[in-house]
Specification:
alpha/beta; four-stranded mixed beta sheet; two-stranded parallel ribbon; 8 strands; globular
């Protein structure tokens, strides 16, 4: 299952994976196919959204995960904002503490972080 707000990205996904369900919608507006998931990956998404929308989306994802369900997402460790190179839009990182606190408020536990060779920062969380 996939969700992407870009019509061109969803069209490319459909062309490459015709048997996989994808919805063209903003993640924060999606009903996630009215189902639960064992895991959710949000790579390069959260920081493209405003602070309150990020918090709302974390809550929405938490609600779509059963106990033990996992979330992996990317966002900088530090509180910062910048112009996104691909979209030109302002990107916002809430920072490590705010992400941890938001996850905990939604019944999730931050289980780990990782920085890759490209300096992308990953957060791994689990539904309690």
């Amino acid at each position: 299952y996939g969700v992407d707000a870009s019509p061109s990205m969803t069209a490319a996904f459909r062309a490459n994976f015709p048997s996989v369900s994808i919805e063209c919608a903003a993640a924060e507006d999606s009903d996630f196919f009215s189902r639960t998931f064992d895991g959710v990956v949000a790579w390069g998404l959260f920081f493209l959204l405003g602070a309150e929308v990020q918090r709302k989306l974390i809550g929405k994802i938490a609600a779509a995960l059963p106990a033990g369900g996992r979330l992996l997402f990317t966002a900088p460790r530090l509180i910062c904002s910048w112009a996104d190179a691909m979209t030109g839009r302002t990107s916002v990182s809430l920072g490590y503490e705010a992400y941890r606190n938001t996850l905990e408020a939604e019944g999730m536990s931050l289980t780990g972080t990782l920085v890759d060779e490209g300096e992308n920062y990953y957060y791994s969380a689990q539904r309690i």
